[in-house]
Specification:
It is a single chain. The protein is globular and about 55 Å long. The longest helix is centred in the last third of the chain and has 24 residues, at about 260-285. The chain has helices at about 10-20, 40-45, 60-70, 85-95, 110-115, 160-175, 230-240, 250-255, 260-285, 305-310, 340-350; strands spanning about 25, 80, 100-105, 120-125, 145-150, 180, 205-210, 225, 290, 295-300, 315, 320, 330-335. Helix 2 (about 40-45) packs antiparallel against helix 8 (about 250-255) and helix 4 packs parallel to helix 5. The strands form three sheets. It has a seven-stranded mixed beta sheet with strand order 2-8-7-6-5-3-4, sandwiched between helices. It has a four-stranded antiparallel beta sheet with strand order 9-10-13-12, covered by helices on one side. It is built from eleven helices and 13 strands. The mean pLDDT is about 95. By secondary structure, it is α/β, with parallel strands linked by helices.
Length: about 350
């Protein structure tokens, strides 16, 4: 059985709730831009239907050229995939590492992919505050081949201290450890200067994971990309997956998304404002809420192990976090949505408590 993720609206239980619920069903379990898919991105995907009679470009040359213009890097620095998760698996299959270092809790697909190659997994368990601290450097030794670091972390939304992040990068380069920096939610923080992209040319021991899915509200199209100065690694990743991993529709949507600068600014502003509102309301309801910086909030409901079950009949789906390594049944995550939806969530939480 695959790890549970947010956005699973297809099972019978949830479909039944959607059919009988008197109000609009709200999915707070998936962290998607509350502004919805930009119209120009939608139009680009629809227009690409005319090209769907042809196989997509297996090398995503047009999309990689657009990414090269966006970042000021050579096109051969990029690899595109069927969502960020596809690239995680490609990377692991390409490397087949003997030992990997993971933080806990974090995104489950890193460990899921590593189990496929029988990689030994070491875990840096975060303390009560669930932050990465400097002692993680002590676990970066010669036995580690690859290290995954989600920044901001999923499910907490917490950012790694920038000085520590750079020390991790420097030690990884010294020790020959490939650092996989997952920045899929970084653009929601409004702090993209924290990205490690500027270090791509300096070390072959860095792979940055990015995604169009969250910011541009297009998870159903599946589009992610990786950035690395290690061309040999990228070529091995290309061979580790299927030939046509990115559809014509997804590629054209991604190119259009790169031009949505104003939309992105509005999204960051909306998420920042609504995140503060939702955090305050959850704290008033008695939750311990972490100071996340992404488009979601992680919280603990002391002694309440069935908040998911209480909210579901009201047409509200939240993310249970007990399947994250190191967390228990009192831990939950909710997406930050538009104000109307966030008000309804706050009212529903008060009602069921």
């Amino acid at each position: 059985m695959r790890a549970l993720h947010g956005g699973n609206i297809y099972n019978d239980e949830i479909q039944n709730i959607k059919n009988i619920c008197s109000e609009r069903f709200l999915d707070f379990s998936a962290n998607i831009n509350p502004l919805g898919i930009p119209e120009r991105v939608r139009a680009a995907a629809v227009a690409a239907m005319d090209q769907a009679v042809h196989y997509p470009d297996p090398f995503c040359r047009k999309l990689r050229a657009a990414l090269a213009d966006e970042y000021g890097l050579p096109p051969e620095t990029f690899i595109c995939g069927n969502g960020g998760a596809d690239l995680i698996y490609r990377l692991v299959y390409a490397l087949r590492p003997g030992c990997a270092l993971l933080t806990a809790p974090t995104f489950a697909e890193y460990e899921e992919a590593l189990r496929q190659t029988d990689t030994r997994c070491l875990f840096y368990f975060m303390e009560q505050d669930l932050e990465v601290r400097y002692d993680i450097l002590e676990q970066m030794d010669a036995s580690v081949d690859v290290m995954f670091l989600c920044n901001p972390n999923n499910p907490t939304g917490l950012l790694v201290q920038q000085d520590l992040l750079l020390q991790i990068l420097q030690k990884a380069a010294r020790m020959g450890i490939l650092l996989v920096a997952d920045e899929c939610f970084l653009d929601f923080t409004g702090q993209e200067e924290r990205s490690l992209v500027s270090y791509i040319k300096e070390t072959p021991y860095l792979f940055i994971l990015k995604s169009f899915t969250k910011m541009y509200a297009m998870p159903g199209l599946r589009l992610g990309y990786g950035i690395s100065g290690n061309r040999e690694l990228l070529e091995r990743m290309e061979r580790a997956g299927q030939c046509w991993g990115v559809s014509v529709l997804a590629s054209e949507a991604g190119i259009a998304a790169l031009g949505e600068k104003e939309y992105k600014k509005r999204a960051v502003s909306l998420v920042r404002e609504e995140r503060a509102y939702l955090k305050r309301e959850l704290e008033i309801a008695g939750m311990r809420v972490w100071e996340g910086q992404a488009d979601y909030l992680f919280f603990r409901a002391p002694g309440i192990l069935d908040l998911y079950e209480r909210l579901l009949p009201l047409g509200i789906l939240i993310r249970r976090c007990e399947n994250y390594r190191g967390l228990d049944g009192s831990c939950y995550r909710v997406a930050v949505k538009d104000h109307e939806a966030n008000v309804r969530l706050a009212e529903a939480v008060r009602e069921v408590l």
